[in-house]
């Protein structure tokens, strides 16, 4: 029975990592859809970045960064890995 424990532990970790990856994929797909919509329609978004909220619209979508703009700043560069949430219509 004790020999079975490490195998069950490894299996449970593997399953947890698979579920976490699926959640990241869903977040990335939903975020990408909102970013593209904002870019194409020039509609505003609320980008939640490290506890701060940035109201802006997307100008460019890069692999590692999002370039946005708002009334105050003509160009805002945001790293994708820093985005916690995106809110938009």
Beta strand count: 5
Adjacency order of strands in the biggest sheet: 4-3-2-1-5
Tell me the strand percentage band: 25-35%
Number of helices: 1
Structural class: alpha+beta
Q: What integer is the average pLDDT?
A: 84
Radius of gyration: 18 Å
Question: Are there runs of 5+ residues with pLDDT below 50, and where?
Answer: none
Description:
By secondary structure, the protein is α+β, with helices and mostly antiparallel strands. The chain is built from 1 helix and 5 strands; from the N terminus they run H-E-E-E-E-E. It has a 5-stranded antiparallel β-sheet with strand order 4-3-2-1-5. The radius of gyration is 18 Å and the shape is elongated.
């Amino acid at each position: 029975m004790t020999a079975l424990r490490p195998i069950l532990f490894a299996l449970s970790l593997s399953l947890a990592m698979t579920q976490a990856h699926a959640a990241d994929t869903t977040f990335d797909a939903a975020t990408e859809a909102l970013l593209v919509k904002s870019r194409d329609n020039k509609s505003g978004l609320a980008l939640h970045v490290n506890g701060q909220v940035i109201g802006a619209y997307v100008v460019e979508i890069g692999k590692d960064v999002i370039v946005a703009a708002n009334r105050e700043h003509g160009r805002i560069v945001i790293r994708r890995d820093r985005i916690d949430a995106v809110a938009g219509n």
